[in-house]
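Hello forum,

I keep getting stuck at the same step: I have a sequence, I want structure tokens, and every attempt I make locally crashes halfway through. Rather than fight my setup again tonight, could one of you with a working pipeline run this one for me? It's a single chain of 35 residues.
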Amino acid sequence: MRGWDAVAAYALSLTESAAWDQTLVAQRKGYGDRP
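Reply #2:
Ran it on my machine without issues. Output:
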């Protein structure tokens, strides 16, 4: 189970970092106010 938890945590961190990158790009383009 530890291995699976590590994989899940890793996938979650990747997803969060990807969403954060998209947010930064959107703000940089001036679309930060859009949902």
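The radius of gyration is 14 Å. If your local run keeps crashing, start a new thread with the error log.
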